[in-house]
Amino acid sequence: MKQIPVLNSMEKTRDTRFLKNYTLNYTNTEGGEKIYETVSNFDYDSPEQLGEKAAGVVIIGTKGDKLLLCKEFRMGVNHFVYNMPAGHIDEGETVEECARRELYEETGLSIVRIEEILPPSYAAPDLSDSSAYVAFAEVDGELSDHTEADEWIMPGFFSREEVEKLLFTERFSGRAQMAAWYFCKKISHKHG
To answer: What's the Cα-to-Cα distance from 179 to each of 1, 5, 84, 160, rounded to whole Å?
Structure first.
């Protein structure tokens, strides 16, 4: 049986408002020493802290029989991408408070009822320890723009038929694509 890789040390190589770059030194499965680069939303003192804190929340919003999707311009891929409303949890803010604030900022909508909040999941664990809670919610209100100058977000409500077409004609984030596919296939889950 292979040995599990061991993270030996880490060094912060860049520090910006939202992201911190780290170089990780680890021992691989054959005992060789290797270097790996990662980014995080957090400042860390030791390798054991990686992946322990959630950075934000993603909102899977529905209104009646329509799904809320946000068409966003994402600089990291230089394209428009369909995504879910999401954002960083502010210091001292609860997951629910963050979901309500981010939903309003990105769409102008409010949460009527939170159906479920899932534990944090990683967005891209091969690149980062960034993780977010996922809040499933009924939403309502009028769509309006409250975003910052660095954001381009156009929210909209889409029927199952519209979502199915978008899935095969537009770019999506992975999490939004999975939620949209389940929504358009009318697959539901009842938590036991």
So the answer is: 37, 33, 9, 12
Task: Say how far apart CA 134 and CA 120 lie, in whole Å.
Answer: 7
What's the pTM value of the predicted model, to 2 decimals? 0.89
In sign, the C-alpha dihedral spanning 155, 161, 165, 167 is positive
Q: What's the CA angle centered on 112, arms 151 and 109, to 5 degrees?
A: 25
Residue with tokens 């999490």: 175
Nearest alpha-carbon partner for 41 in 88, 107, 98: 88
Q: Residue 54 carries which side chain, given as an amino acid letter? A: A
Give the pLDDT score at 151: 86
Helices (H), 41-189: 95-107, 160-169, 174-184
Q: Which residues pair with 154 in a beta bridge?
A: 71
Question: Which residues sit opposite 38 in a β-bridge?
Answer: 22
**What tokens were used for 172?**
């999506």
Q: What is the mean pLDDT of residues 58-84?
A: 96
Core vs surface per residue 121-136: b (16+ CB within 10 A) or e? eebeeeebbbbbbbbb
Single-letter residue type at 5: P
